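2 proteins. here.
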Amino acid sequence: MVKVNLVVVGKVKEKYFSEGINEYAKRMGKFADFSIIEVSEENFTKVDNALIQTIKEKEADRILPHLKGYVFAMAIEGTKTDSQKFANQIKSLIDGGNGVITFVIGGSYGLSDRVKSRADKLLSFSDMTFPHTLFRLMLSEQIYRAFSIITGSGYHK
């Protein structure tokens, strides 16, 4: 069974997001060994451009040890795709022998260049900015949808 990791910065504070994310994590159990790895985020009250770089680098130090297998980094400048193509890419990875697929969501200021360069693919859902907890829910759902498409389970219509 393939291992799917979701490496994220920060914790989910809202119960309604947690419930949704946990639901998709539970559903993923029939397709993959799915886990969410949370690393702590940097918190500062006043931030300037220099501090943003420092924040991203400190978060990168926590993220990088968890990046295993094929890595998708979520980045606004990444490639946009549809659910079917996303599923096809995951299927190709699995069929090609990739036993671990990792997705990474950065903190409030995004991902450092070190994390992006470690990634095998930069992926974007939109040019819009989303709250991190909402995006975590959206990504969890899309990963579940991809596996549903791959297995023909009927969830994807």
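next one coming up
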Amino acid sequence: MADNKKILTYEGLKALEEELHELKVVRRKEVAGKIKEAREQGDLSENAEYDAAKEEQAGIEARIEELESILKNAEVVVEEEVDASTINIGCRVIIKDLEDGDEVEYKLVGSTEANSLKGKISNESPVGKALIGRKIGEVVDVESPVGVIKYEIIDIKKSN
């Protein structure tokens, strides 16, 4: 059976807890109000508002269940205790593409928190996998759709 453990940074844990609270306290009430309103309009068999509200409710309940499962099985990385001599979850790293010389900074996080638009890459991504356990000055090869890309590790630092 697959391991259900999800690795989270403290920041990621807080964000998921806030989302869960928002869904349970605010969104559930909003959708219940929409359903009540739609019911009051009469015939439910042809009531698009009712159907949409019930779909929204199902989506919210599914997300609540997913968040509760993630939080129940979460392994939280204490970023202050991360050893910045090697790359691990919770580190910020600067890498340089050896082909074009571009440098980019990433924060390495668990898959649940990954968001490339915010510079957060998963430890399970091709780049993340290649970086885990490496040190400053090392060169890593990353498989990509366009071929192998070589990156040099320029800097590692704690993310706080």
